[in-house]
Amino acid sequence: MQVFNKKTIIFLCMIFVSVANHQLAAQGCSDAGFCTIPLRPAAASKNNIQTELAYLRGEENTNLATLSISYSRQLSKKIQWDNKLVAANIDGSYGSVTNLGDLYSTVRYGVQSKSGKKIYLLGGVKIPFNQSNLKIRNVSLPMVYQTSLGTYDLIAGAAFSAGKLDMNFAFQLPVVQQNRNSFIKEQAPLAGEFPTTNLFRRKADVLWRVGYPLKSKTGKWNFNPNLLAIYHLGEDSYENVFGKRETIKGSSGLTLNANLQTTYRISQQQSLQLSLATPFVVRDTRPDGLTRSFVASVAYQFGW
Amino acid sequence: MKVIGCFFAVVLGLSACTKESDALKAALQTNNSPVTAPIPVQPALKRGVLYSTSGIQVMGVVKIIQQASGLQVQLDSFSVSAGPDLKVYLSQAATPGNHLNLGNLQSNSGTQYYNIPAGTNLSAYPFVLIHCQQYNHLFSYASIQ
């Protein structure tokens, strides 16, 4: 990890602001959620609890707030178990929805390579708390209003250092699709650009994050500007009004985000993290509702 | 504060908190206003009686009526057991599969109307179904003649 100075911070902030000002439509993190799962151990304590509050700007003037609570436990020198529960509030032209989203449970295994480098391998599951068919007054809602994608997913990942860079790879595969969304654009009571997502079926994602971590001389501040690439591996589909499945053209492809994470270590046991992210390359169509033009989050972590 | 309260209610109760916007409220009022509601005594082009499936209670009559705006399905003297995601289908058989989804069931009781898309070949759909899409459970069917 590099030691930073003020010029470096200003330079990185300018890059981030520049990217933020040149963003295209909106698709942030795939947020099938795994981009928020830490691939490296966040703290040295045996037990850690983290709460995180995030604000996300979505498509068609929707605003999302998520609240998550995480618990991680070091099971052995090499193995750590992480659990994260997410609830979300979405507010937009249809109204507001608040509900539990998903539970993530992952196990991380740290191994030493022959060259002495540490590599972290991660595997786990995402479990949905609803079937992605939340309604307001019996009106079916677009996916952006849903707090979960309604899929049981397998998650696998790896993290390691390559020179000064921090590399992360992950793969998220929906294995049980119980999405029962019933939004049909032609039957919607409000005009809008939300696509039909009746009985939506979602394809897998791969993620690649490359960061350039820096830390202050005192070790209190950590600073991790990073690029987050998410590739959606196929075109999603929905069932039309005739009960026939149709693929959604343009729903596969790349999303590229700029992300800035700043961590302040309050003590050995406690830390605060601020994260800012924005996309600058997006997919043509984003039917899953994972459309973020801006994401900001603050997290507090306590270990013992 | 309301949002924070809702978060806690959701976490503790494991149920969704929802609130409609003024725009949605207005749109729903417009859709259900007497001005746009069809005249109830419209003669039926086709009709049928609704039958229930196992464990479901249903009563009512299905009519196909002609409005100035196009064809509509009318559910008359209607009531059905509550379900989480009930849809109204025009169907080629007494079970879903080859069907035309007309939208969410508006209410579990009372007279209600559903637009049939222009160009629909009505003779290809001799059944009307009330179907729970979320749990893939058929609630009711009617043969329309």
UniProtKB/TrEMBL annotation, chain A:
It comes from the Bacteria. Keywords: Signal. Residues 1-25 form the signal peptide. The keyword Signal applies. This is Outer membrane beta-barrel porin/alpha-amylase. It comes from Sediminibacterium goheungense.
TrEMBL record, chain B:
Pfam families: DM13. Residues 48-145 form the DM13 domain. InterPro entries: DM13_domain. This is Electron transfer DM13. It comes from Sediminibacterium goheungense.
